[in-house]
Amino acid sequence: MDGNHMSNGDIIGFIGLGNMGGPMCERLLAAGHQVIAFDLDDAKVAHAAAHGARPAESAADCAARADVLLTSLPRPDHVEAVMVTAGALAALRAGSLWVDLTTNRKELVARLAAEAPPGVDVVDSPVTGAVDGARNGRLTLFIGGAEAPVARATGIIEELGTVIPCGALGTGNVVKLVTNQLWFVAAAALGEGFALGMSHGVELSTLYRAIIESVGDSFVARHDGPSIFAGHYDPSFSVDLCLKDLGLLHELQADVDAPLLLTDAARAAFRDAGNRYGGDVGELHVAKRLEDDTGLSFRMDGDWTAPWEVTDQ
């Protein structure tokens, strides 16, 4: 831990040290927080310990020692496995707070909150901003819950980026899924735009400049386009995770009295990518489909720094 920082009060437990959780944990340590860390991967725990975290023996041990428990896990079933099967929820002490950073099912968060021990508060705060945002403290966090626990959580997680209060418990996940809904539509459309222009004789470099300097511009074009150009398609977020979120969106769609045609089209495009290339490949294989179908190449020379390698600027 940086010797210039002092502890900021609450002892934080952090469970889930993956592509997003690991960098978030390091940001909290760098800000001077006392952090107890756990992951099923011992190497990830050791990495966090090298940055000043104290290792926990189990998820339940991590929860029992924490004033504020943060969980950052890939899927809702992982959250249930950690909090219920592994005993983390039952281990929380009265007066403690659980902040779930996972993109989760709002009904699951509500059920686990109802099952929490007396005196334990729960908020949901899924994040967006990719691995580079996690590393550089530039995430956006969508938080849902009662006023007092939201304020308490915000005092900690604002170290990770911009915190947006969304309403009651569960609304953080609704807002996060809406942002992903628009991201998936844009990611699926980007490859189609490249294919359309290039099929009619326009250079990819010209297309890309036109896109980012026009009404076609978007975070997806600027952030994800380079992963297509470099040919790695951003393995830091898999097609399977996209399909998980698209599945959660499908559940939310049941309460909308109108067809969401673009959302359905994006789900079909990502499902096709998963069927072709496997679920563990990078999310932007949704654009590779267009390369393979048209025989075009979306490779382009440039200084395309991978998102997980981006450092503070």
Main sheet makeup: 6 strands, parallel
CATH topology of the largest domain, by name, is Rossmann fold
- Sequence stretches where pLDDT stays below 50 over 5 or more residues: 1-7
Kindly estimate the percentage of residues that lie in beta strands according to DSSP: 5-15%
- Tell me the strand order in the biggest sheet: 3-2-1-4-5-6
Radius of gyration computed on alpha carbons: 20 Å
How many domains is the backbone divided into?
2
Mean pLDDT over the residues = 95
Q: Please tally the β strands and state the result.
A: 9
Distance N terminus to C terminus? 22 Å
Helical coverage, percent range: 40-55%
Q: Can you name the CATH architecture of the largest domain?
A: 3-Layer(aba) Sandwich
Q: Spell out the CATH superfamily of the largest domain.
A: NAD(P)-binding Rossmann-like Domain
Helical segment count: 14
For the record, what CATH class of the largest domain applies? Alpha Beta
The ordered H/E elements are: EHEHEHEHHEHEEHEHEHHHHHH
Structural class: alpha/beta
What global shape is seen? globular
Features:
six-stranded parallel sheet, three-stranded mixed sheet, 313 residues, 2 domains, Rossmann fold, N-(1-d-carboxylethyl)-l-norvaline Dehydrogenase, domain 2, 14 helices, alpha/beta, 9 strands
Structure report:
This protein is α/β, with parallel strands linked by helices and 313 residues long. It folds into two domains: 157 residues, Rossmann fold (3-Layer(aba) Sandwich), CATH 3.40.50.720; 136 residues, N-(1-d-carboxylethyl)-l-norvaline Dehydrogenase, domain 2 (Orthogonal Bundle), CATH 1.10.1040.10. The chain contains 14 helices and nine strands. The strands form two sheets. It has a six-stranded parallel beta sheet, sandwiched between helices. A three-stranded mixed beta sheet has the order 7-8-9. Helix 9 runs parallel beside helix 14. It is globular and about 65 Å long. The relative contact order is 0.10.
